[in-house]
Specification:
The chain has a seven-stranded mixed β-sheet, sandwiched between helices. Strand 3, helix 7 and strand 4 form a beta-alpha-beta unit. The chain is 42% helix and 16% strand. Helix 1 packs across helix 2, helix 2 packs antiparallel against helix 4 and helix 6 runs parallel beside helix 7. The termini are far apart. The relative contact order is 0.11. The protein folds into two domains: 64 residues; 204 residues, Rossmann fold (3-Layer(aba) Sandwich). It has twelve helices and nine strands. The protein is of the alpha/beta class. The longest helix is centred in the N-terminal third of the chain and has 15 residues.
Length: 285
């Protein structure tokens, strides 16, 4: 009877994942094994000669099988990190990406009033709304989304992280939140992929992320045109906005959308790879 040690199973599963085109196969093999054994990657190296039980092997092999179909690692382990939060993930909402943390960091650097009202459009897992609420303890944060399933996940995440955020089901392309006061800041990571670009996406994204969170029904710019139209009804005079977008191919078009509507202090913010990723600006009547 073969005795599988940690070092053996990592090598075997790395080879398996590489043959199926999984990026960073070794890293994913270790992350999946860490989930099964309840150890971080560093701890795995201290237990390389540890034999694995049948139950551990069965669970791990199922993890690896799923990853071999290109199901995202975050769906398999059920969570991911974002800022200082642990975010539960699943097929009902977009997996938080590291580049979205840049939007949060820029928002936290703004000179907002001590009790800001913040709107997060297309909140998904609630990661942006919760990260802002966690750092700005006096903030009143509203996250809206068209998906009831995503909002249920966002509520679960807020409860798990002990962060207070309000959530509402709203289709921002058709209606506005019912508010008594305007917001001091509006943020969003909206759908910005045109349907024609689906073939260019990784399988993890195209087949496992919710299409509502990925695809704009038109050219990828519908939400930004809508934002440019409605921000005067949402923002206080002089209020800032921060919106993530799809990189260099959209940069000029998105700048033009907001310039033509008379927004001020427009700036393009680069992500960790040096690609244009976030547009910021202000509404001034």
């Amino acid at each position: 009877m073969t005795v599988w040690r940690v070092v053996d199973i990592i090598k075997s599963s790395t080879d398996f994942l590489e043959k199926r085109g999984v990026p960073d196969a070794r890293l994913d093999a270790e992350m999946l094994l860490g989930d099964v054994l309840r150890k971080n990657r560093l701890e795995l190296y201290l237990y390389f000669d540890r034999p694995m039980s049948k139950n551990e092997l069965d669970q791990y092999r199922e993890h690896v099988r799923r990853r071999g179909t290109r199901e995202p690692l975050q769906h398999i382990v059920g969570e991911t990190g974002f800022m200082n939060l642990t975010i539960k993930t699943g097929p009902d909402a977009l997996i938080p990406r590291p580049e979205t943390e840049i939007l949060v960091e820029k928002a936290l650097a703004l000179n907002l009033n001590p009790e800001p009202r913040i709107l997060d459009i297309g909140t998904g897992t609630g990661c942006i709304a919760m990260a802002l609420a966690q750092e700005l303890e006096q903030a009143n944060v509203l996250g809206i989304d068209i998906s009831a399933e995503a909002l249920a996940l966002a509520n679960e995440n807020a409860n798990q992280n002990k962060v207070t955020v309000q959530f509402q089901e709203i289709d921002i392309l058709k209606t506005l939140p019912n508010i008594e006061q305007r917001f001091d800041l509006v943020v969003s990571n909206p759908p910005y992929i045109a349907p024609a670009e689906r073939a260019l996406l990784q399988k993890e994204v195209a087949e496992f992320d919710p299409h509502l969170a990925l695809f704009d029904a038109d050219d990828g710019l519908s939400f930004y045109r809508r934002f440019a139209d409605i921000l005067p009804e949402l923002l206080v005079p002089g209020g800032p906005f921060l919106f993530e977008f799809g990189g260099a191919p959209q940069e000029s078009a998105i700048l033009n959308i907001f310039m033509e509507k008379g927004y001020h202090d427009l700036e393009i913010i680069q992500d960790y790879n040096g690609d244009p990723r976030v547009i910021s600006g202000r509404y001034s009547p």
